[in-house]
């Protein structure tokens, strides 16, 4: 049974034999010791080491009583093996040593049993990293096995394997490989132990990987993987380890797709075994990140690297060298992705750690400063870039006698930063210094030398030394021609040379150069599209200067077409790079200049269309102010052209509708919702007349107009328009279409927002169903889930609410990361649900998590005002950094205000009232500056302001603020909305404190009516706080009958829901007794 692998059956049979044996022979028969030894072996195989050692010890006692010294030695050997497995090394060594001494006395020095005990001792010493002693034992064991069993025996192979490990630990790789090869040949022939064979092959692969013999390493790891899957299964750590090593090797040979496959299998296994937050998982993520990066899958690479960094921080803290290296890699990766702010943050963290661990003036610090300088340069932070490069050079020269190539690169970058800062004399010095080094270190003709000559020419030209600039550019062009550089690199120098001729009025010469560029062999086929476009644009500008307008128009049309192609202007979702944006707008402006030469109607139409195009380019670049200005100009020109028409020009009307539509969307993004409503309303009228009501463009404009009303919190008007847009889109595209789903989604949000809970739930579920059918991302539907969570919370259905918010948290965390402000908002909502359920400890914990995200978000601006996320306290005061935060987000002030008010709410929840007030007041100021006076965001900010004033015992001010908040909320929301109820209850508290009991009662009565409309009478009474407060007010106002009525109703409700012995029941009885005393009913 044991040989066949049926260990549990074998154990059962042996235990039966032991029981019978004890009955037959008594407790101390020699044969029983053998049975116990067998039971010990089976328990050891099964990993039940405690049971194994118990049986071995019983066996030992019996054998000692019979004086059979050899069997005693064997028992001690077995006990030593179990103790070693339990990590009790000192005891294991003692048993093994006793066994060895006894066996040597009985069998001599060269017996096979001696070899086995020596090998066991070698294993113990090797596990303790005492490799010299282990080497002695394995060497002697190997000699004995070879003497008795021959060179090909399995036990010889085990010793060779272990000796290989020892040689590898000594970095004697050739000796290690020799022993591993011997071991693998023996194991392959004997096929007794595939597990050990897998480790031998894995170790050989590791050595070949170090020696950069990648094909051999791949073979070894691949074979090892087969053996490990056979021995341990596909989901074992041993298998995952070899998959990781194979992935690393495939990465080195450039087989990135297969590397990704191996990494993913290893990752799946390790996450299953250890969880996602484990160091071994981080190790796989690092390799997987490199593979994805090499495949050009930078988003996936960044995710993997971020996970690895997060885990390393959790295990090793924030200050380990490995973490600094990963932060540096992440910084470079995010720079490649053009996410420069993220790149800068990672590089700064790498810099901090390296300075801490390696010292301020280490070469590692110099390298990171160099990378950071490049990143800052690409963010147009030229002064900071220059400072970082200067510091990098200073450190580098501490370690070098003179400039080397790396130092020359730093100096070259310093020159480029100085150029941008108009420090051209200093830039020239840097370029000349870098050029001197590169001329010495590089071959006589090198593209870097041509580049530096070009840079020098640019600075000389800026200083007015055009002759020197032209000479340097001529040298750069000649050098580039001799090197056979690309058309782009050659064209760059020729364009700049032509530019100098233009600047000095030598247009004939510049025209020749532009024509030379366009006439370069295969220029149209080989040159990058932006370079071709730039050549046509520059030629067009020069032709305008020499008044060759017809040719200029031909060239500018080519330039515009090329710029639009390379910037993918038709894709409105893509953001234009700064250079693309500048060139495109420049080309449009030249086209505008040419179109405006003649005052005829066709020219006017073209001018209007070009203004429209310029505006769209501004939108794509995020320059909304400029976009609005251009759209307004397009609107003016197109309306003027309409007035010149004898009859209605449908094409012009459609163009005007398009201009007004895009202008409206732009105004929505700027937060100018009233103006957006005006523009989109005009666009809707025009497009409806042009196309009729059932047209896609009409539904698009209607949807956007509804969106403007929604953002202006005019929900009633938004609901009407979204309903119409949804119906039109259903008619045009069907029920299961992204556009239909979008209108339906916004409709559900608006209906939910005003407090129409039942209709809101129905629409939200319908919208979710449509989105799921068209397989949209979870992030698209997150606001629907948020609505459902809010509705359930408002209805007092807290468990359902938490389910929605927990799902929302998972989605947002997955898509947006750990530190997005939307995540903080979701956590705030979860905290509010816990608070409503009376789970104060849980809510406090959740609010603290949300606050940490806010601190991280604002800390990027706060500088010295910020504290580490681990700090238990928030920033000392948000006041000093809020102006900087507003300045940083001046193009999106509304989003900034929303972030501020969330921070304020969290500060208030965590007991930092003064700091909360700073944030609430700052957000209210922005809201009033941008939004209409009745916007719901102003109502919320006023409510929070009033709440803070109540806590500060400033009742009269609070009452005025809260009344204004109530007016706005009642204007935007249904009277049954929970926010309206909250305002009414807080106002009742304030008026009561001011002695206005009648007013307080009126407010509470309205709150109770609203609650009944929202929840129904039965649910309304489930929470009896309002009725209880009304009872207290009636009592205070000497209206005893009304007070009795309220208290008796509350008593009935609380006894029914909480029993007769709750503290809340006692509270009501106390209040009821007080009324009866005042009424003289003492009994």
UniProtKB/TrEMBL annotation:
Claim: Phosphoprotein is one of the keywords in the record: no
Q: List the protein's name.
A: MalT-like TPR region domain-containing protein
SMART domains the record matches = TPR
Q: Which organism is it from?
A: Pseudictyota dubia
**Keyword tags:** Coiled coil, Repeat, TPR repeat
InterPro entries of this UniProt entry? Answer: TPR-like_helical_dom_sf, TPR_rpt
Q: From which residue to which does any coiled coil extend?
A: 414-441
Q: Where are the TPR repeats?
A: 33-66, 115-148, 198-231, 240-273, 408-441, 782-815, 1024-1057
Specify the taxonomic lineage: Eukaryota, Sar, Stramenopiles, Ochrophyta, Bacillariophyta
- Gene3D superfamilies according to UniProt: Tetratricopeptide repeat domain
Entry's PROSITE patterns? Answer: TPR
């Amino acid at each position: 049974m044991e040989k066949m692998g049926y260990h549990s059956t074998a154990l059962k049979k042996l235990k039966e034999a032991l029981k019978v044996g004890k009955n037959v022979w008594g407790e101390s028969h020699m044969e029983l010791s053998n049975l116990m030894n067998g039971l010990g072996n089976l328990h050891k195989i099964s990993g039940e080491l405690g049971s194994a050692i118990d049986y071995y010890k019983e066996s030992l006692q019996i054998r000692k009583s019979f004086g059979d010294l050899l069997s005693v030695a064997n028992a001690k050997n077995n006990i030593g093996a179990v103790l070693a497995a339990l990590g009790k090394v000192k005891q294991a060594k003692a048993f093994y040593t006793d066994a060895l001494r006894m066996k040597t006395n009985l069998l001599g020095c060269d017996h096979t049993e001696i070899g086995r005990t020596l090998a066991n001792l070698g294993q113990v010493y090797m596990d303790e990293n005492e490799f010299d002693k282990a080497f002695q034992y394995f060497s002697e064991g190997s000699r004995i096995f070879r003497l008795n069993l021959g060179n090909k025996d399995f036990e010889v192979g085990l010793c060779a394997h272990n000796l290989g490990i020892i040689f590898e630990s000594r970095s004697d790789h050739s000796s290690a490989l020799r022993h591993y090869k011997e071991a693998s040949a023996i194991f392959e022939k004997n096929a007794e132990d595939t597990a050990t064979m897998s480790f031998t092959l894995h170790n050989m692969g590791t050595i070949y990987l170090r020696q950069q013999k990648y094909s051999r390493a791949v073979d070894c790891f691949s074979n090892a993987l087969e053996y490990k899957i056979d021995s341990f299964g596909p989901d074992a750590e041993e298998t995952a380890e070899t998959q990781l090593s194979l992935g690393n090797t495939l990465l080195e040979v450039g087989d990135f797709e297969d590397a990704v496959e191996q990494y993913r299998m290893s990752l799946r296994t390790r996450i299953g075994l250890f969880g996602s937050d484990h160091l071994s998982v981080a190790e796989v993520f690092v390799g997987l990140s490199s593979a994805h990066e090499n495949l050009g899958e930078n988003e996936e690479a960044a995710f993997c690297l971020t996970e690895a960094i997060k885990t390393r921080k959790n295990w090793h803290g924030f200050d380990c060298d490995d973490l600094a290296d990963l932060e540096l890699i992440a910084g470079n990766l995010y720079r490649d992705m053009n996410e420069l702010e993220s790149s800068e943050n990672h590089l700064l963290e790498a810099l901090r750690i390296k300075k801490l661990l390696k010292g301020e003036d280490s070469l590692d610090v110099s390298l990171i400063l160099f990378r950071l300088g490049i990143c800052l340069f690409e963010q147009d932070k030229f002064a900071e870039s220059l400072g970082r490069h200067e510091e990098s050079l200073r450190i580098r020269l501490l370690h070098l006698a003179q400039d080397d190539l790396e130092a020359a690169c730093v100096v070259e970058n310093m020159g480029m930063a100085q150029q941008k800062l108009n420090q051209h004399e200093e830039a020239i010095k840097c370029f000349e210094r870098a050029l001197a080094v590169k001329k010495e270190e590089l071959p006589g003709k090198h593209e870097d030398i041509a580049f530096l000559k070009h840079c020098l020419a640019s600075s000389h030209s800026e200083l007015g030394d055009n002759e020197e600039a032209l000479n340097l550019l001529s040298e750069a062009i000649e050098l580039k021609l001799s090197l056979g550089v690309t058309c782009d690199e050659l064209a760059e120098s020729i364009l700049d040379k032509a530019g100098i001729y233009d600047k000095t009025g030598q247009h004939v010469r510049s025209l020749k150069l532009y024509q030379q560029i366009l006439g370069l062999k295969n220029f149209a086929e080989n040159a990058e599209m932006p370079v071709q476009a730039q050549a046509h644009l520059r030629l067009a500008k020069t032709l305008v200067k020499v008044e060759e307008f017809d040719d200029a128009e031909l060239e500018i049309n080519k330039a515009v077409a090329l710029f639009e192609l390379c910037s993918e202007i038709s894709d409105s979702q893509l953001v234009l790079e700064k250079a693309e944006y500048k060139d495109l707008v420049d080309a449009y402006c030249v086209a505008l200049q040419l179109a405006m030469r003649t005052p005829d109607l066709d020219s006017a139409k073209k001018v209007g269309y070009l203004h429209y195009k310029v505006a769209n380019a501004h939108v794509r670049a995020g320059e909304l102010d400029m976009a609005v200005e251009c759209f307004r100009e397009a609107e003016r020109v197109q309306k003027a052209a309409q007035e010149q028409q004898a009859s209605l020009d449908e094409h012009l009307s459609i163009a005007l509708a398009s201009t007004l539509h895009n202008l409206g969307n732009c105004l929505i993004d700027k937060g100018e919702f009233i103006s957006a409503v005006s523009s989109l309303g005009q666009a809707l009228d025009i497009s409806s007349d042009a196309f009729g009501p059932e047209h896609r463009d009409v539904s698009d404009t209607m949807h956007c107009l509804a969106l403007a009303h929604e953002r202006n919190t005019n929900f009633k008007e938004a609901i009407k328009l979204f309903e119409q847009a949804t119906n039109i889109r259903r008619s045009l595209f069907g029920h299961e279409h992204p556009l239909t789903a979008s209108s339906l989604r916004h409709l559900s949000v608006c209906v939910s927002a005003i407090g129409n809970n039942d209709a809101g739930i129905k629409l939200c579920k319908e919208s979710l169903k449509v989105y799921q059918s068209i397989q949209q991302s979870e992030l698209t539907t997150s606001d629907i889930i948020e609505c459902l969570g809010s509705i359930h919370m408002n209805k007092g259905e807290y468990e359902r609410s938490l389910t929605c918010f927990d799902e929302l948290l998972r989605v947002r965390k997955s898509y947006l990361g750990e530190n997005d402000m939307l995540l903080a908002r979701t956590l705030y909502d979860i905290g509010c649900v816990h608070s409503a359920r009376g789970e104060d400890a849980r809510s406090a914990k959740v609010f603290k998590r949300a606050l940490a995200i806010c601190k991280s978000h604002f800390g990027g601006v706060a500088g010295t005002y910020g504290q580490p996320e681990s700090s238990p306290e928030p920033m000392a005061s948000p006041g000093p950094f809020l102006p900087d935060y507003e300045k940083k987000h001046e193009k999106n002030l509304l989003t900034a205000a929303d972030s501020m008010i969330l921070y304020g709410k969290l500060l208030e929840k965590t007991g930092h009232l003064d700091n909360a007030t700073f944030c609430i007041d700052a957000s209210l100021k922005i809201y009033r500056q941008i939004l209409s006076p009745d916007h719901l965001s102003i109502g919320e900010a006023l409510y929070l302001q009033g709440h803070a004033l109540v806590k500060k015992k400033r009742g009269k001010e609070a009452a005025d603020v809260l009344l204004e908040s109530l007016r706005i909320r009642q204007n935007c929301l249904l009277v049954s909305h929970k926010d309206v109820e909250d305002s009414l209850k807080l106002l009742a508290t304030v008026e009561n404190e001011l002695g206005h009991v009648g007013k307080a009662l009126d407010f509470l009565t309205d709150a109770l009516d609203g609650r009944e409309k929202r929840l129904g009478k039965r649910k309304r009474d489930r929470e009896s706080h309002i009725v209880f407060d009304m009872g207290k007010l009636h009592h205070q106002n000497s209206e005893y009958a009304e007070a009795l009525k309220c208290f008796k109703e509350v008593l009935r409700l609380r006894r029914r829901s909480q029993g007769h012995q709750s503290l809340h029941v006692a509270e009501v009885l106390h209040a009821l007794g007080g009324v009866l005393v005042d009424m003289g009913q003492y009994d």
